[in-house]
Amino acid sequence: MGNALRIDSREPELITSRDNPTIRFARNLQRRRFRDRERAILLEGVRTIQTAIHHGARLRTLLIDARQIEALPAGQLQQLAGAANRVLRVSGEAFDTVADTEHPQACVAIADMPQATLPAHPTMLLVLDAVRDPGNLGTLIRSAAATGTDGVVLLPGCADPYNPKAIRSSVGLVYALPVVRVASPGALREHGGEQQLEIILAAADGAHLWDQVDWTRPFALALGGEAAGATMDMRTYADLTVSLPMAPGIESLNVAAAGAALLYEAVRQRRARDIQNARTYAENV
User: Rounded to an integer, what distance in angstroms lies between the CA atom of residue 90 and that of residue 134?
Assistant: First the structure.
């Protein structure tokens, strides 16, 4: 083996049977009920696994496609292997039964499911209401992580954030911030401590344009599902509604694109506030 991957001076064990217990376990992680029971998820692809490790993921097992092992940089391979409790080489036939994509990447990892708890005093939350597409959900988690959002709250009807497609779309950033499920929008009132969170609902018919809202205050941005938008329950709890301007003839943006645009408006306003506060402080020193 050109990359000479060795664990304790030995090459990792080679698995050739699709009925191997570890392969069956990994394959069963495609099912939500099994994931929830075992408190484990699948991470597919080198970048996703590296990102997850960086944010504290604990790898139970690293599965490496024996067909692609030569194409992986040796240092990268050793880094991934060093983070896993167990490393296995897997024949192509067996590996293909585990990977969730048509053209699998070289590595799949079995990892502990993230332990998620929202911070005691969040100032910026993303709330998803019946966002059913796992790709959109994963992309929104990625945008939330990129903007420094304190957490993502999932209301009933949302896709599972640990669905393999959602994890790929988040590029492993499901480990970078807490992602929690709650039973109803009313639970949002429990967060924020003394600073009550303002619930801002994005809607095509929102009463305020995106740049007319004060995003520097503690808020929870709520986004509705792809087809029907927010549920009536969510609309009842919203303090205000916000919309993005659209060119003539365009009704709406994809929910993931709209979420990213609104979160970055919040980042822009908060950055401008911090710069102004720093200038004011410098002038008064």
Answer: 27
- 190-230, pLDDT tens digit by residue? 765 556 889 999 998 889 999 999 999 999 999 998 777 88
Distance in angstroms (rounded) separating the CA atoms of residues 130 and 54? 30
Average pLDDT in the chain: 90
Q: What is the pLDDT of residues 15-47, one digit of tens each?
A: 999 999 999 999 999 999 999 999 999 999 999
- For residue 252, the domain's CATH number is 3.40.1280.10
Identify whether residues 99 and 46 lie together within a single domain.
yes
Q: How far is CA 161 from CA 87, 139, 192, in A?
A: 26, 10, 23
> What is the rounded end-to-end Cα distance, in angstroms, of the chain?
64
Residues contacting residue 234 through CB under 8 Å, at least 6 positions apart:
127, 129, 155, 185, 201, 222, 224
Decide: pTM greater than 0.85. yes
The position carrying tokens 């484990």 is: 40
16: DSSP letter: -
Q: How far, in Å, CA of 242 to CA of 227, rounded?
A: 18
Counting the structural domains of the chain, the total is 2
- The span from the CA of 62 to the CA of 15, in Å, is 12
Beta 198-202 vs 219-224: how paired, if at all? Answer: parallel
Residues 88 and 164 in one domain: no
Question: What whole-number percentage of the chain has pLDDT above 70?
Answer: 95
Query: Rounded to an integer, what distance in angstroms lies between the CA atom of residue 236 and that of residue 185?
Result: 9
What are the residues whose beta carbons fall under 8 Å from the beta carbon of 164, sequence distance 6 or more? Answer: 29, 30, 42, 44, 100
The more confident residue out of 285 and 220 is: 220
